[in-house]
Structures are given as C-alpha cells and as structure tokens.
Design a protein that fits this description.
This protein is α/β, with parallel strands linked by helices and 435 residues long. It contains 18 helices and 14 strands. Belongs to the histidinol dehydrogenase family.
Length: 435
Amino acid sequence: MRIVKLDEASKKNILTDLLKRSPNNYGSYNDSVNEILNNVKENGDKAVFEYTAKFDKADINADNIVVTKEEIEEAYNFLENSELVDVIRKAIKNIREYHEKQRQYSWFDSKPDGTILGQKVTALEKVGVYVPGGKAAYPSSVLMNIIPAKVAGVDRIYMVTPPGKDGKVNPGTLVAANEAGVDVIYKVGGAQAIAALAFGTESIPKVDKIVGPGNIYVALAKKAVFGYVSIDSVAGPSEILVLADETSNPRYVAADLLSQAEHDELASAILVTTSMDLAKKVSEYTDMFVSKLSRKAILEKSLDNFGYILVVDTLDEAISVANDIASEHLEIVTKNPFDVMTKIRNAGAIFLGEYSSEPLGDYFAGPNHVLPTNGTAKFFSPLSVDDFVKKSSIISYSRQALEPISEDIQKFAKAEGLTAHANSIRVRFDENDEI
C-alpha cells in the first residue's frame, strides 16, 4: 500500500479522490436508469419480466415471480449439511436484541387546564427490501434490513432479489429472509425492482419505503424514486478507516483493511497513524495477505485506486483526519481507544480495540451494518428501527386552555397576513358574526 506523509495539500487531494466514488458522480448512468423506471411505471409487469430476461437471463413471469414455500424448503434442504442456518439464527438473536433497545413509544403529556400534547409513533405499513444477487449473495444484509423493520412493527415486508439464470434465488438468501420474518420474496433485481416497489405493478405492490444495498443502477434508481417513496440512503462503495498508533498490531490492521477492500474495485481502505514504523509494517503485511487471498485482483485494484496509509504527527491530527473523512467503518486501535472515541464526531460504526474487527459488525455483534458512506456519516446514521416508523404530533386543548392565549395566536397570524388563521381562533370566543 502507498504511504503518504499527510499535509493539507495531500489531504485535500485524497478527500477529493474519495468523493469520486459517490453515486452523485455517476451521471452517465442516469439516462439508462430513468428509461427503466419510466418503462416499469408505464408497463408494469411486462417491463419487469423483459428486463429480467435481458439482464438476468431468467424466464420470470406472473406465475413464478414469487418464491414459493417449496423453494424455501428446498433452500433449507440444500443447506442441511451446512452450519450456516445455525449461525444465521445466532446472529438474528444478537441483531434483534440490539434493535429492540432502539424502539420508541408514543407519549402524551396532560395538564390540569385540559392541554394534552404528545407524539404518536406508528410503524410503516409496507416496506421493500432490496437484496443483491448474482455473483455476490449476502444473507447478512437480509438480516440487517428485515430485522429492524420487524422490531419496528412494519405490517408487510416485501423482498426483491435478482434470480439466477435458472430462475432460482441463492439458498442462503432465502433461508436468512425466512428466518428474519419476510412476508413475500420476489425474483427481480436491478433498477426494475426499485421501480416496481416504488410505483407498483400487477404482481408487486407499491411500498412506503425501500431499503437495502445494490449496484450503481440500484443506487441511482433509489435516488430517482425518492419522493414517490422514502428510501434509507443512496449508498456508495464500502470503506474502512483504521486509526492506529504505535501500540497496534500491524498484522491485525492489515487484515482489517483488506476485509473491506475485497468488496469491489471502488472500495476504500485507509490507515491513519502516528507511527511510520507501523505504516511500513502494515504495508508489508497487506502485500503478503493480498498474494494469498482469493479476491486478489479486486484487492489490488481497490488498494491501487483508493487505498492509503496516511502518516501524521499527532493523535489529535489523526482524529481530525478521521472526522474529515467520516468513514463508513472506523476502527480505533490505539493505547486508549475509548478516550479517542469521545473525540470522534463522524463515523458510521466505531470499533474499539484490536479484537473488535469490522467483520464482527458485518455479521454477528448486533448493530446494523447498513451504514452511511462517502462522507455522509457527517449527517446520516446507521439503519435502525427509527427508519421504519413515523411520528405524528398530538395536540388537544380545552376551551379553558385556549382562551388565555387566543389573542396571542391572533396577533401572530395577523402579523403574517393570515387573517383566516386569526379568524379560526376568534370565532371560538366572539359570537358577533353576521351572516
């Protein structure tokens, strides 16, 4: 990995380089995505089936678009001699327990004069979950998207995922979805799946919100349908930043950087450290690991494009860099990681200590692994139960409570030139109207 002694100029260049990975910079795909969205909006199932045949080479129609109970049973039988089902169930327990702590409840506050104020928390009715297919199947993403929706109390959860050429869905994906509690699974992927969930077709109902990761076409489609439905975020490529000092284990650090770099060629892996000695050792270990790992070609391109070892003079400077980059995953492996954590303002998920490696969060610990990318951790949060509920304000006043403030409300309304607003209050206490 390249080693850079960081200064203001190099930091600016690196931040600019990282932002090139944002879906906001892929305008060349917009026309293709919009064509798909409009076609599905106008032609429904017909367009969905045609795109599935074109892109996935699968013969999907109204009779086989829904995954059947028999297909789910077949998936369990396929994994019968695998330990994956037991692992999925253990992970579900941790994920559910973590997200249950996020639940919010309606509240009401009443006063003796008859004033009642409050907040009503209501789960969304219908949610669509996108799950990638094709070469990569991620049962863990299935769990991370469905379980918080279930905990929130969503009525109906519909999952879409691209089928293989044989018209089947990855067994691990099906088992994970069934264990997590999905209601219906549809064999459709890509921008056409997002369009179907956003607008509805003869086979697929329109939902209130779409969540889940996908390729650039999926990301741009989600961005385009925002407003017709809600979305979780427009996710970019995966990323990790490790903040380390001279006390950290270079072998562990190198392994953790590569755990994200292997996702795809656009993934980012960055070490920020105060130790040049550590930087050199980590670079050596990454080269050694890359030569032995199965996704060598992807790792090499990822590191060449967006891999950096940044050396700074002080820990405070390292913390500042981490806050500027606002990484999706941030590992802190320093002498006092909890102390450093208190100074971190921007990160999707924070991993503390040398035994809290990023894959722990991806699969098993419980916190959600659907995280803000491309610097959006400065203003976005991980996927949570909050994403699957909405809140309504509750206001109830008695005559006794309203009368003392009625004149104040009328003055405010008249100051804004809204006399009908003022009149709405006035008529309740002034009977001298002529008809």
